[in-house]
Amino acid sequence: MSDQQSDDRRLEELAEKKGLGAVVADDFSVWQAVGGVRGLTETVLPSILFVIVFTATGETVAAVAAAVGVVALSLVVRIIQRIDLSPALGGALGVAISALWAWRSGDAANYFAIGLWTNGAYLTVLLASILARWPLIGVAVALLRGENQSWRTDPAQQTRRRRYYAATWLWVGLFGARLAVQLPLYLAEDQVGALGVARVIMGPFLFALVAWFTWMLCREPSTQIVIGHHSDAEDSPEPEER
């Protein structure tokens, strides 16, 4: 499953305090951030099987069939266990698109192409939000907490503003690092195995690490992590914005 699929799944799970939603919880759980054992398995197993089968056989079709097969199996298991299908459907659609792209092009590396495009899109949006002075992680955290967006301009909330900017830069770093490592592997020849390994390592595991740093930055009270200089106004408790 690509970075886009795993990230999209986590965005869909915000309401359940998983994925990015975990950064506004009172306590941070790595397992919640990656969707638990089931979410982690469903995220990484298709890519792992794709790489193993392609490395063993050299056949794109066989590797595609393995990835699609494990996704289909995970859906069947959910149906049998009467578990909500919606988080898995987004990932299944992503695998189907990736598989179709690789199969039609005959190039196994294209199984990972959609993830590169979506990482580039996320990177662009996050950078644009910083340039527009609406750092997206800060906006999302405020919305998830039911707060308004006065932190952007209120001088008394300068500390919070700095932390939200820093958190947004963390995610810029995540998507930028993925592209910096994986794009050269995608463009190189015969690097499908290395690309798959990089995709798995930099997928849910790096996502969880960045989510944990984001939780550290965004948790309240604001005095737990200080970015830059404290003003006198910031030494006082920040007003409730709900």
Automatic annotation (TrEMBL):
Keywords: Membrane, Transmembrane, Transmembrane helix. Coiled coil: none annotated. The chain crosses the membrane at residues 48-73, 85-103, 123-144, 164-187, 193-215. Pfam families: DUF3159. It comes from the Bacteria. The keyword Kinase does not apply. This is DUF3159 domain-containing protein. The lineage of its organism: Bacteria, Bacillati, Actinomycetota, Actinomycetes, Actinomycetales.
